[in-house]
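In response to reviewer comment 3 from the previous cycle, which asked for concrete evidence that the modeling workflow produces usable outputs, we include below a single protein chain processed end to end. The sequence was submitted unchanged, and the resulting structure tokens are shown without manual editing.
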Amino acid sequence: MAQSSGSLSPLSVLADLTNFQINSPNMVSAGLPDDIHLSRLNALGVTHVIDLIPGDRDEERHSVRNLGMNYHNIQVVWDNPTYENFSDYAHEVSEAHNDGGLVLTHCKLNWRGSVFTYLYRITVQGEDERAMKAEMLKTWQPNEVWLAFIQNVLKEYNKVHGTHISTSVTASK
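The workflow returned the following structure tokens.
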């Protein structure tokens, strides 16, 4: 992640952004950013914003594009996330990475975002599942709906790609 001027670090200038995480050198995730957060993220090198919130997202799309960043909205319904949502997400992140871009994934509280980031990193990037799980759990413990989503994505991903990726995630009580 590019540094801003002076001694400011991403964590200090984004300390008030809900559940902000630096996931990797080319991925960050967070809860819902406001225009000030978006401007700070842009200054730190974010080039692509993937918004996982359903509904009318025109205001954010406009703000992001005015800052010169790419914007993509994937309408992930809270109680019905789908494999197609993840497939769209993986495509968008991969395209951004092919462009050399730094991606912000966000939703309202970074709960959706942390799960999507976890899944992308263990499937597409082949990172260690337990390490990625630990990172996700810093944000939240998925409930039964989201555990079923994780399991379904892995089942479908494994079928399509001939892999055998599994999860150690359990649902919150």
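The mean pLDDT is 93. We consider this sufficient to address the reviewer's concern, and the full set will be provided in the supplementary archive.
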